[in-house]
Each structure stands twice: as structure tokens, then as C-alpha cells.
């Protein structure tokens, strides 16, 4: 089964964002945003280069500026500094456009100067380029991560750097399974989560600490149901507790197209008085060809028996040949016609030869002139750098490994003369995304990889030792 979306929600670390900027997905619910993010990541087609990629020519984001075109003032700037081979990794233009604060990159320093003030973010990493510490001056926080030998964050120490007399300190402990899914999160005398993964059904129980009784009390639970392709089709939320019975409070129904891309997500809540389900939110998507980045997004925020769904915003996205957006038109709901009106805003994207966003021009519709007038110009700056090839850089003499069938459409069988060593078996896409990772002793571990859900294309099978050094690699073709 694919990694559950709720697991992503629990593990997502968001870099602080401060300035108001164009985000076509800003109205998406966290649940749906996570589905879209996973969808794009799973079907990534190698638009950009930067972080742990398999080609040596890279560009990484090092600067950003935003100019108000109505008064000519530069109201937001940021600079990013890196060490080693760390860089940027954007699956699409939407991630690229939100990367100026360090999201989807691994910078050491992010320095921001904007109308809201200044902020300094400092990050350190371990030998495997996993985040170790993260300091945010404006947010007055310091996060310290302790990881197990496969990179899962098993301890998170949060420090409040403003109220430091005495310092406010919160520790969260986590356990993971061999698929890097969270089984347990607990912050002492605060809150905890217990996750159970099954065949097509996952459940998540949430607890809060009760100071009066001095014990954990159940707060609510959620249940996720998946189809045969491992895509989440239904989410159910419950209030109450295990001893007195659970009361269903909400549900979300998701549908997909033949490519496995999300086409709709409809949320409902249960009226406690009438016990009747009521529609609350509907989110609708459309796509161009097999590109996973949507070409249309509609958000409806209310429903009535008499009038049906009432919309809020709509984005029509004009894509290019690699699946990025060239232009996005935004429309609002017209309460007179009961439909989406004419576009009131447009954003134009400009790219470099790496398909990285170099400029975004925002224009608002001027009723008087009947044309779009410029309101904001954002620029993105990059530096070129070279990294060792992620597959051909082998730290020891490469042993012979076999992988068959190759090309493969379903299960890939891996074998070879590596000996009794503790290793990790990884499958990496051409964009550098690690899509599979299993650890154990080479002689006794299960070395089969189910690639049936992988998109067609070229992948790299990588065997690494306990130190993370790659000791063998092989190119795999998925039909």
C-alpha cells in the first residue's frame, strides 16, 4: 500500500512563510493538499534538478525579490546559502514559487527582509543530509531532531527561544515501521497519536493529557479507506471515546481519474440534532494529458438544497509541454449568475533552461480599461553547481548484483554477492526521489520490490551500506 496521506500530514515540516503571495492551492484543505502533493511527487517527471538527483548539472535557488508594481517598492527579499551538494528540488512550478523561504530545499541559512520585518533561519544537517537543527528567529523556536539509523525522526525537541527564563521545552517521541510510517507520537502530558495500518484501512487515534485525572484521554479518531491502487477514497472522523462509543462527525469522499489523479474531494459533516449529513466543501480538479499538476481547480464552500453548491474561487491553468504552468487565471463566484465570473487576476510564469521559475508577474483585472494591470513582479535567482552522480559514485568496488525481469512491470527480484552485511535497498527515480527503501541483512532480507504502481520510465536500484555509502547500483526500466 502507498504511504497513507494522514502519515504525510503528521510528518510534514513546513518552513515558515510570512509574506502574502500567490498560491493557487491556498484554499485547499490540509488533507487534499497532502493528496495533491503526494500525487505530484509520485508521478514526478524530472522537471528540475538540485537535491540528490542523478544528473551532475544543477541549479539551486539562492535569492528572491518581490516588487509592488503599483508603487515600485521592493517589499520582500530573501537569500539562501548552502554548503556541500545540498540544493533545491521542486517537483513543479507551484513548489518552485513557494521555495524562497527554504521549502523544498536544504539551505544552511535563509535570510529574509520584508515589510513584516526580518527573519533569520539557520539549519544544520547530519551526514546523510537529514535535518538536525532548525532555528527560526522570528518564530522564536529551535527544533532539534534525533534520528534512527534509517533517518526517521524519533525525537523532536522544541525550544521556545523567546520565553527562556525558564526555557520552554517540549519533546515529542515517535516510533516508525519499516515503511517509515509513524506508529506512535507522544509529547509527555500534552498529546499523543497512535496509528494502525491495515489492508486497505488505516486508523489514527488522538489523545490529550487530562491534568485532573493525570492520564491520557481519547479526543477523536480518523479512519482512512484505500482502493486497490492504494489511493485514499474515504476519510471518516469520530468524536467521543472508546469506552462510551464513537460518534461519527465528518467524512470526505475522494474520486480519481484513470491516471490516479484526484478529480474531486467532497466533505460532509453530521448534524448532531437531525443526524443528517450536510455538504460543507467541494474541491474539483481537471488535468491535461498525463501531467499530474492540475489544469483546473474549483473550490466550493457552501451548499443548500435550494441553490446547490456555492463557489468561492476557481483557477484555470494554462500548461506548457513539460507540465508546468505558463499562466494561471483566477475567478471568483458571481452571486447573480450563480457561476464563476470572468477572471479577475492572472499570473504569468517565466522559466530558464532548467525549467526553474525565474519570474512571476501578477496582474489584476481593471474594470475601467478592460485589461489586466501589473500589480506585482517576483524574481527568483539561482546558482549553478556540480554534484557527483547519485548512482555512479560508488564508495567501494561494486559487487555483482542481478535484478530481473528488466524491463519490469510488476515485481522486481534482486540478488547478488554482497555477503552478510546490513544494507539498504533503494529505488530512485531519475529526479532523485527515493521511492522505495528497505533495510536489513542482505542474506536474510526480502529483496523483492513491487514496482507495479511506479510510473513508466527509468529508475536506479541502489544498494548502500550502514554508513549510507553506495556499494552497488543498477539501472531499471519500468514498462
TrEMBL record:
UniProt keyword list: Signal
Secretion system C-terminal sorting domain span: 404-477
Annotated signal peptide: 1-19
Record keyword Hydrolase present: no
NCBIfam families per UniProt: Por_Secre_tail
Record-given protein name: Secretion system C-terminal sorting domain-containing protein
Amino acid at each position: 500500500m502507498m504511504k497513507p496521506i494522514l502519515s504525510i500530514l503528521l510528518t510534514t515540516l513546513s518552513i515558515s512563510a510570512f509574506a502574502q503571495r500567490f498560491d493557487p492551492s491556498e484554499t485547499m484543505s490540509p488533507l487534499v493538499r497532502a493528496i495533491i502533493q503526494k500525487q505530484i511527487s509520485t508521478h514526478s517527471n524530472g522537471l528540475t534538478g538540485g537535491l540528490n538527483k542523478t544528473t551532475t548539472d544543477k541549479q539551486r535557488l539562492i535569492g528572491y525579490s518581490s516588487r509592488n508594481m503599483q508603487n515600485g517598492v521592493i517589499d520582500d527579499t530573501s537569500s539562501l546559502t548552502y554548503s556541500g551538494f545540498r540544493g533545491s528540488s521542486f517537483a513543479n512550478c507551484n513548489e518552485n514559487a513557494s521555495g524562497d523561504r527554504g521549502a523544498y530545499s536544504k539551505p544552511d541559512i535563509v535570510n529574509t527582509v520584508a515589510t513584516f520585518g526580518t527573519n533569520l533561519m539557520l539549519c544544520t544537517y547530519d551526514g546523510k543530509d537529514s535535518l538536525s537543527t532548525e532555528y527560526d528567529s522570528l518564530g522564536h523556536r529551535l527544533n532539534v531532531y534525533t534520528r534512527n539509523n534509517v533517518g526517521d525522526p524519533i525525537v523532536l525537541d522544541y525550544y521556545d527561544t523567546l520565553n527562556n527564563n525558564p526555557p520552554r521545552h517540549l519533546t515529542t517521541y515517535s516510533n516508525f515501521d519499516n515503511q517509515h510510517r509513524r506508529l506512535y507520537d507522544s509529547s509527555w502530558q500534552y498529546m499523543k497519536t497512535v496509528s494502525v495500518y491495515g489492508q486497505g484501512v488505516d486508523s489514527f487515534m488522538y489523545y490529550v493529557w487530562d491534568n485532573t485525572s493525570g492520564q491520557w484521554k481519547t479526543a477523536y479518531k480518523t479512519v482512512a479507506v484505500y482502493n486497490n491502487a492504494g489511493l485514499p477514497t474515504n476519510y471518516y472522523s469520530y468524536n467521543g471515546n472508546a469506552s462510551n462509543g464513537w460518534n461519527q462527525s465528518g467524512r470526505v469522499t475522494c474520486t480519481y481519474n484513470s491516471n490516479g489523479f484526484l478529480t474531486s474531494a467532497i466533505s460532509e459533516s453530521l448534524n448532531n440534532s437531525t443526524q443528517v449529513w450536510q455538504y460543507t466543501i467541494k474541491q474539483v480538479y481537471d488535468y491535461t494529458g498525463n501531467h499530474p499538476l492540475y489544469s483546473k481547480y474549483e473550490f466550493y464552500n457552501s451548499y443548500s438544497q435550494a441553490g446547490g453548491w456555492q463557489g468561492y474561487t476557481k483557477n484555470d491553468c494554462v500548461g506548457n509541454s513539460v507540465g508546468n504552468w505558463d499562466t494561471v487565471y483566477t475567478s471568483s463566484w458571481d452571486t447573480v449568475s450563480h457561476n464563476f465570473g470572468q477572471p479577475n487576476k492572472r499570473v504569468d510564469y517565466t522559466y530558464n533552461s532548467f525549467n526553474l521559475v525565474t519570474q512571476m508577474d501578477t496582474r489584476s483585472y481593471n474594470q475601467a480599461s478592460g485589461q489586466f494591470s501589473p500589480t506585482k513582479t517576483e524574481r527568483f535567482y539561482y546558482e549553478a553547481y556540480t554534484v557527483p552522480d547519485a548512482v555512479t559514485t560508488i564508495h567501494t568496488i561494486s559487487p555483482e548484483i542481478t535484478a530481473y525481469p528488466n524491463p519490469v512491470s510488476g515485481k522486481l527480484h534482486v540478488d547478488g554477492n554482497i555477503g552478510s552485511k546490513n544494507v539498504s535497498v533503494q529505488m530512485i527515480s531519475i529526479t532523485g526521489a527515493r521511492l522505495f527503501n528497505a533495510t536489513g541483512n542482505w542474506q536474510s532480507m526480502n529483496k523483492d520490490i513491487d514496482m507495479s504502481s511506479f510510473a513508466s520510465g527509468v529508475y536506479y536500484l541502489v544498494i548502500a551500506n550502514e554508513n549510507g555509502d553506495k556499494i552497488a547500483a543498477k539501472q531499471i526500466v519500468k514498462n
